Sequence to fold (256 residues):
Amino acid sequence: MPVAIVTASDSGIGRSAAVRLAQEGWDVGITWHTDEQGARATAAEASAKGARTALRRLDLVADAASGATVVGELADELGAVDALVNNAGGGDTMPAIDFDLATLRDVLELNVVGALACAQEAARRMRDAGTGGRIVNVTSVHEHVPLPQAAAYVAAKHALGGLTKVLALEWAAHGITVNAVAPGEVATAMTGNEDVDPHDVDRPAIPARRPGHADEVAAVIAFLCAADAQYVTGASVVADGGLSLMAAVQDGRAPS
Fold:
């Protein structure tokens, strides 16, 4: 079975992606930062789908370079790395004028430097194996549009989107595709809606009128990891229920 490594797969989009890939025939490497119990729950779900699993703790803020070590360890344990999903990310909210530069560096380490470290190790192994591979970077709709009081997060996601395109250019010759998935609001712990049905949450400013479900983003990730996506590279697939289309709607309400 092919092997996918999904960072920050202890909850939310990462967990859904790991379980979806397991359902589609992948073995999965799982990483967690603070929630080991959540990572083990992900592993149990993936194992129930028939996947082999391996787990490692990963702290890209404390040591972004450790991403390469952890990807390598998971690849060694599972026997390969055929896909990498760079899902670890996050950021703080405050006015840009007040943003502490040390915090900015931490956000960039997590979202950009750590993602590159993981991608480099995966790509080296894919290149050396001669079989190609898939790298999917989970960015955000804010890879494309700004968000007030989120300067570091927006800067980091823009940077990861640009990095995705450069890696796609450089690594295509090795049969490695590199793409981004840019979710809008998704019902996860990060948005305070982890345990709700997003269909029950009204969002008048989103054309779909609701947040997304982590499984809906996972489906896009799984497609980009699949053989059928071998001609897709350097793309950023926006999965936001139409949120990014709202820039021209001055009253901030989607059409009924």
